[in-house]
Structure formats: structure tokens, C-alpha cells
Amino acid sequence: MTTITPCPVEAFDASPKDDLLPFSARLADKGREWYHAFHTSLRKATGWSDYGRWSGEANLARSWDARTRQIGALIRPKTTVIEFGAGRLVLKTQLPEGCAYTPCDLVDRGCGTIVCDLNARVLPRFPAHDVAVFSGVLEYVNDVPRLVAHLAGTVQTIIASYAVKESNRRYRRSYGWVNDYTSAELVDVFEREGYRRERDETWESQVIYEFTKIRRIRAAKDAPRQSAT
Questions:
Q1: Is the pTM for the entire model greater than 0.90?
Q2: String of b and e for 84-117 (b: at least 16 CB within 10 Å)?
Q3: Most exposed of 10, 43, 114, 149 (fewest Cβ within 10 Å)?
Q4: Could you tell me the CATH superfamily of domain 52-213?
């Protein structure tokens, strides 16, 4: 008669192993990545904006304030400024003396916010301003050429940050970004509407551009005169 020796209890231990935890974490991260990418692709196909993400301040990272400060340093004194995607209104505190500031966002942020969805089928007529600012916004706009064309008759200078494809190839849909421009492609969008690239600066892996109209447009006399101070 053959004697069968039971396997040690340790061999059947079902508790998590340390060497499996990294894989589990990676799997969970991949699941979240796929979920956000699918959600973004759906919004891109339907033209929706992400109201759920941007309605409150929880997703307005304070780490972005450094980018806003860098943009503020490019703005000249005594100009009228409209900021699209105004968020926590940080730019208002970074403007030089004599500037007038108008916030514009998906939801009301106070201080006379122009509430506007840049992915809406029809864009409103914005008051003329000397400068328009897009800080971390263009990546979420489904039709950037349409937006630039819409502003070309009322804004002399556009300062915009963008996560160019050259240095931000991965996870674009997971981040919620709905477009994929290289630097050359984005510059071409503005040049087709009569803007000239005056300068570009880096912020982390992104580029901050300053575009100015080759031909001057009419003065921004109808812009609201809300002091930035």
C-alpha cells in the first residue's frame, strides 16, 4: 500500500504574494487607462465636453499654477486679456499693471465669467481683446482650427500652451486630450489664420506659444474693463 504524504499547508496559501502586487497594480492602472481613453474617444466622436471633470475645482491642479505664472510674464501692461479655461482665476493675479481681465470657462467661475463650451456647435461672439490665453485648454478642444478662425477677427495676440505630440506621445486619450498636434502642425493652424509665431517657451514637456496677428485688428474697445488688481 502506497502512503501519500500531504502537501504542506504553505503550498495552498492563497494570500497575496509580494511579487504579484506590482502586477496587480499595473493591471488596475491599465484598466483605468483604458476606461479614460474610451471615455475620451466617446467625447471626441460626439463632440461633448467633460462637464463632470471640470465643473468643480477638485481637478484643477495647483501644479498648473507655475505654467500660468510663466504665461502671465509674457503679457504686456495695460492690455485687455480674455482667458479661456480660467479655472481658479490664477492668471488674474499674475497680470501686470493696468490689465483688464475677462474669464471664460465651461462653468461660472465668478468675476463676470463668460460661460462657454468651446466644443459647442455654435460659438458665441466674444468681445474683442488684445490677448487671449489658453493654458492647458487646446488639448480638450475637438476643432482647434475652427476656434482659431473664430478668434482671428477679434484677438490680436494668442498665448497658448500645448502638449505637443513629439514629447507627449503616450496616454493622450487617457489624459482626456482629443487632438494630437505636432509643434509644426499646431503652428500651421495659427498661420493659416494670419498669426505669426513670435516666441515659444517650454514648460515641463509642453510648449507655450505666443502668436500675433500679422495685420492689426481693430482696437479692443468693446472688451469689459475689469481690472486685474
A1: no
A2: bbbbbbbbbebbeeebbbbbbbbeebeeebbeeb
A3: 10
A4: Vaccinia Virus protein VP39 (3.40.50.150)
Sign of CA dihedral 95, 88, 38, 149: negative
Q: Are 195 and 213 in contact (CB under 8 A)?
A: yes
For the CA atoms of the chain, what is the radius of gyration? Answer: 24
pLDDT, mean of residues 188-213: 97
What are the pLDDT digits (tens) for 114-160?
A: 999 999 999 999 999 999 999 999 999 999 999 999 999 999 999 99
- Whether residue 183 contacts residue 166, with contact meaning beta carbons closer than 8 Å, is answered with yes
Distance CA 147, CA 139 (A): 12
Helix count and strand count (H, E) for the chain: 5, 7
- Per domain, the residue ranges of the chain are 52-213
